[in-house]
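Shipment paperwork, digital attachment
Item: protein structure file
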Amino acid sequence: MPMYEYTCLDCSEKFEELVSSSTVTVTCPHCQSQNTVKQFSTFASNALKSNSSCGTCKPTSGFS
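Attachment content:
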């Protein structure tokens, strides 16, 4: 089950939640509101940066 980062639009609380499906409604643990939005994970954005080909990085897979 993946863990996602959420922000509550009612109280601005930021929290993480293990979610089994993208269609599950997530409730804020602080105010119990279901008015939450999934955030783009900092971890995911860093992973995308490190795997991108900028032209200056050398490949690490052994291919030239």
